[in-house]
């Protein structure tokens, strides 16, 4: 009986983390990059830059990004200071949900909290509700995982979503901040979709599910994870 309980407790599971991106943009970067490079709307930029430069004097000659001016700014001019990725959302009228896969930390990693995140999934789909992906799985659709980008983490924390505080005269911040329990280094970002390999010429094409951040490359992300996340979002009347 006790062994069964322990086995259940050690089983990886997905949980809801946050809701991000409403009326703003979903950026993924080191959590420290948000106060360094982004600025809230309707603020005195000179004043905020003075605060920023006092905290990060190495950036005194670097301007804030034109974050609210449009999509797709080129940040390659400062590669020594910034790496990040923007989730390719079609609209920012509504936010998106963020989920984390909880695992037991490896025994060789000394941490106060043994429960850590191996993956983070930013769930978005233009044309389907998340729970509709369960039907696609039942129809035999397969996982399609495409590497999109890699980002460097140096503060042991990853930030997701931009906390756009209008007129808030403080440094900017991420909406959702998560620990990288394996420490600083390079982390990979993937686009997750389901595709019909039985009928590869299907006019529907791959069905986008979300953006995956891989915090532990030794832990697998499979089509079962898509199903588990979809069940978390299933309406009560379908359960």
* Largest sheet descriptor: 6 strands, antiparallel
Please provide the count of β strands. Answer: 10
The SSE string, one letter per element, is HEEHHEEEHEEEEEH
Question: What class would the helix/strand composition place it in?
Answer: alpha+beta
The average pLDDT is 81
Which consecutive residue ranges, at least 5 long each, have pLDDT under 50? 1-9, 67-77
* Beta-strand share of residues: 25-35%
**Global Rg:** 20 Å
Number of domains: 1
The amount of helix comes to 10-25%
Sheet with most strands: strand arrangement: 1-4-5-10-9-6
> Could you give the distance between the termini?
29 Å
Shape: globular
Tell me the number of helical segments per DSSP (H or I, 4 or more residues long): 5
Which helices and strands, and how do they pair?
Blueprint lengths: L1 H8 L3 E8 L6 E4 L2 H5 L7 H11 L28 E3 L9 E9 L10 E9 L9 H6 L3 E12 L3 E7 L9 E7 L5 E11 L11 E8 L8 H10 L7
Antiparallel strand pairs: 1-4, 2-3, 2-7, 4-5, 5-10, 6-9, 7-8, 9-10
How is this structure best described in words?
This protein has 239 residues and is an alpha+beta fold. It has one domain (2-238). It has helices at residues 2-9, 33-37, 45-55, 133-138, 223-232, and strands at 13-20, 27-30, 84-86, 96-104, 115-123, 142-153, 157-163, 173-179, 185-195, 207-214. The longest helix has 11 residues, at 45-55. It is globular, with a radius of gyration of 20 Å.
Brief digest:
The chain is α+β, with helices and mostly antiparallel strands and 239 residues long. The protein is built from five helices and ten strands, in the order H-E-E-H-H-E-E-E-H-E-E-E-E-E-H. It has one domain.
């Amino acid at each position: 009986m006790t062994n069964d309980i322990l086995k259940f407790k050690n089983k990886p599971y997905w949980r809801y983390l946050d809701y991000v991106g409403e009326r703003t943009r979903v950026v993924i970067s080191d959590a420290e990059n948000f106060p360094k490079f982004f600025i809230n709307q309707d603020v005195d930029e000179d004043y905020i830059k003075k605060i920023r430069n006092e905290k990060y004097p190495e950036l005194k000659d670097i301007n804030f990004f034109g974050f609210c001016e449009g999509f797709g700014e080129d940040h390659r001019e400062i590669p020594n200071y910034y790496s990040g990725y923007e989730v390719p959302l079609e609209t920012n009228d509504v936010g998106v949900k963020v989920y984390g896969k909880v695992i037991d930390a490896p025994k060789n990693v000394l941490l106060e909290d043994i429960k850590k995140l191996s993956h983070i999934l930013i769930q978005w789909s233009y044309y389907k509700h998340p729970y509709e992906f369960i039907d696609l799985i039942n129809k035999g659709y397969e996982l399609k995982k495409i590497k999109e980008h890699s980002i460097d983490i140096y503060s042991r924390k990853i930030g997701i979503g931009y906390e756009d505080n209008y007129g808030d005269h403080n440094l900017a911040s991420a909406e959702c901040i998560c620990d990288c329990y394996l420490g600083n280094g390079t982390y990979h970002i993937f686009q997750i979709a389901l595709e019909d390999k039985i009928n590869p010429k299907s006019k529907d094409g791959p069905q986008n599910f979300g953006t995956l951040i891989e915090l532990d490359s030794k832990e697998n992300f499979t089509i079962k994870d898509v199903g588990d996340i979809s069940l978390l979002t299933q309406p009560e009347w379908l359960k």
